[in-house]
Design brief:
single chain, 4 helices
């Protein structure tokens, strides 16, 4: 991971999604809830109370290899009659999970959907507040996201290149 890389932090709130991530190499985000496109080089996972000893912390991250826009039915064919079966989801194709040498913890309960940060902040962080960008960093990250997004489309698989 390079200091200027973009890291998307997403919530991991159930064991089924964690199993798909670990065993099948993908993570899903409903398109309606996704941040403005998926233009990060890495994705990290804030785990909720479902994960026992790993709860309320970021313990894992992984490189993003590509993004596809698919229906929920395509992602979870065992639930063809689910109420959201036809809704679009981003299928984020990832590499193997990497466990952090120490968790990035949340010192107090907070509602988190997504957080965007830099590789530098992510590598130095000990708690979630360490990931929050100041105004100058935020402008640099969003400029990089815009430039990265110009040559890609979330409507089809995209390769993010070797880093």
């Amino acid at each position: 991971m390079f200091p200027e890389d973009v890291v998307l932090v997403a919530v991991m709130n159930n064991q089924r999604d964690f199993a798909a991530l670990r065993d099948e190499g993908w993570y899903r985000i409903p398109a309606a809830r996704a941040p403005d496109g998926i233009h990060a080089q890495y994705i990290a996972f804030y785990q909720t109370k479902t994960f026992g000893a790993d709860a309320f912390a970021i313990n894992y991250y992984t490189p993003i290899y590509g993004v596809e826009l698919v229906t929920r039915r395509d992602l979870i064919p065992s639930q063809p009659d689910h109420p959201r079966a036809q809704q679009p989801y981003y299928k984020i194709l990832v590499g193997p999970l990497i466990r952090l040498p120490h968790p990035i913890i949340s010192r107090k309960w907070r509602r988190l959907a997504f957080l965007v940060t830099t590789g530098e902040r992510f590598q130095k962080a000990w708690e979630l507040n360490d990931l929050v960008l100041d105004a100058a960093e935020d402008a640099v990250v969003w400029r990089a996201i815009r430039e990265f997004g110009r040559g890609t489309s979330a409507d089809s698989a995209k390769t993010q290149g070797d880093r």
